[in-house]
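P.,

For your records, the input lines for the assembly:
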Amino acid sequence: MEAKELLLHEVKQNDVTIINDKNNDTTNDLNSANDDNHLINLEKGDPTMFCSYWKKLDNECSVTIKASELISYTINHKEADFFGQMPEFVEAVKRVHRVVGNAVTEGRYVIGGTGSSQLFLVALRALASSVRKTTNGSNSSNKRIPVVCAEPYYSFYKEAMEQEKSELYEWQGDANTFKPESNNPYIEVVTSPNNPDGRSRKPVVKGEGGVVMYDLAYYWPQYTPITSPADYDVMLFTLSKTTGHAGSRMGWAIVKDQEIAKKMKKQIWLTIIGSCQEGQFRATKILQFVADRYEHASYYKPPNNMYVPKLFQIEGVFDYGHRILAQRWEKLRAIVQRIGVLSLPDFSPGFCNFFQKPTSSVPAFAWVECKTVEDAEQITKKLKIKTRIGSRFGSSVSERFIRVSMMGDDHDFNLFLERLSSLATMELS
Amino acid sequence: MEAKELLLHEVKQNDVTIINDKNNDTTNDLNSANDDNHLINLEKGDPTMFCSYWKKLDNECSVTIKASELISYTINHKEADFFGQMPEFVEAVKRVHRVVGNAVTEGRYVIGGTGSSQLFLVALRALASSVRKTTNGSNSSNKRIPVVCAEPYYSFYKEAMEQEKSELYEWQGDANTFKPESNNPYIEVVTSPNNPDGRSRKPVVKGEGGVVMYDLAYYWPQYTPITSPADYDVMLFTLSKTTGHAGSRMGWAIVKDQEIAKKMKKQIWLTIIGSCQEGQFRATKILQFVADRYEHASYYKPPNNMYVPKLFQIEGVFDYGHRILAQRWEKLRAIVQRIGVLSLPDFSPGFCNFFQKPTSSVPAFAWVECKTVEDAEQITKKLKIKTRIGSRFGSSVSERFIRVSMMGDDHDFNLFLERLSSLATMELS
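Structure tokens returned:
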């Protein structure tokens, strides 16, 4: 091979361009010939609606990582930090929560993991081993700690726990029907706003030996009014639902108790050593931008003729998210009302401390009930729309329900509405 | 706050500089006043010796990720790829193995995870649930599958398994003393070259119901002669020990059997959805560079006066790694010989197919025996050197042994040698 050819080859080989995003809503042709046969996947909560927002900030929020950076496991020289967590990441997480006012972080431990899905299992293990100890005085009990969540519950909980086959805990399903014996230990998972139905939730089991874990992935102002800073023992959040960066797999737990935090860190250490530093680095950049935008933009008045930093020109990500979701919900509700056989949950508006005005809940998922058929998938399959069937969210949840992601890109969402509209002329009753 | 101040603030806040690396050997002052009291941490296998290599390639191998990139969970539009693995990453892994000749990847499944530590547990679970099925005809058996590894074994295996408390398998320690009953199932872990002692290994248990998992983290030409491409059912590798990028937490398994691969993918999906895409993206860039360097540089002869791409100017990473480790081992052996009371394992040289010449094993860890004391840590503590004591590597391993990382930065390694030299004048017998 000639040098020139080689050089070209090198450039080609080393040019790892990112080609894998469903990035750009605008490049999709709404009228493409294939659209009629295109299977619209609204089954998973892939938050691609955020792509067009971040597109405008591509340069402001890009990160560059050089070959020799982020090599070491250790984040800094202090032995205490061998755990592999960037102090900048923790600080950015705390700043965003302070700015939004959705969670107390002062004096709390922030523990990062590969998505909140990993942290869910890590927190469960820490809580289960801790309540086994507390309740029995020793760790000798071999009974598995029951884990419950009110139906409809996020389908992942059951599936993840069942595949894990832990001897520490076991999935026992619906919290509404669960009755703990005397002061026996249990763990209740509270997802608020709830996935799939968007409702605000509180614990339902009244037992003395119970501990509660809060999955607050959707407790952000784009989805629901922020009424007060959440202040619970264990709270889970994820970048996926905060800013839309799902590919980074960056989640965090906010933990009150030092012993639980220690157990969780030890597990993270023993399973993954720490989460990917490239991901932490990028999450830090994104979260810092979001915090800056909301900390300063509200009282910034640029003098005439002065350069206005991009930070202050652009809509905040929570405003964007809420605006898009509110538009989508409005359109969906209008169609559902016209069709008549479908129904959606209703939410009362609440005063959002973050937006400083009343806002409506516009959840990340629509929990759609079809009143006239036994199996709502019959309809969605006809319409070539992939959704998640009600029974995945609990054994007593009717298959008349389906969960539909509201977070996809414009193209898919519009096609979904279009196909749903056609239902009015179909035989449904 | 004035606009100018705000702008400065913004720049400061958004400028997430990477300050956490023990990056630059050259900035360390060998004669600093603090050196005498400095605790040298050679306990963990942090591969910071690679920093100065990559420093020279900072610009050639940097990656930039824009705000709107890597947002989606999905890597491309095909449903089959929802698993969250970049095809480019898989291809780069396969290319490097082809170029090095250390593992067969044709027709194999490559599964990425958050470091090989996560994949170790994921693979164990897949193998354990599979052998339980195979052996009993059904999955009804509740017996835990024994997992063993010949002593001295990598201390992580026992610790990770014990904290996990799986009902699928249990740690049963030393493979040398393990006797499986009739054709009962078991899993043997074979680490080759072995951590801590650098020896090449084969399975030691002779049982009919057994399966073997190979941890080949150190089967790279910088550590040991590559004698043939490894071709086993389940093999684990990690970027940490391949190129030194430990902070990325990128590991991969190479799996022969489709069912095992499916089980592993499902678990990854259910615990983390996929590994961090920023990490995959960067690993791809680094691995592609390494493959290019070795694929082309050997037969490249630049014409006079022509620009020579950096790719061809620079020593390959495996040459660099082997050169540095060989120098360190030589120095260490010289001191150990002089002192007399310590000993190191000996390795016969082997023909390395990759380097196309005989090379010696220069393992990532030195497995040091102190012949005159019961507890080798007595000595290392006096010398303010943190190492890992022999008993961590198995219950019958003597505390006369310590494991010392050979992969740290120059400064720490030189200080280690200096302090070790002082032993000659100390009372040891």
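Two observations worth noting. Residues 1-14, 19-33 of chain A have pLDDT under 50 and may be disordered. Chain A has two domains: 13-57+316-425, 79-293.

Regards
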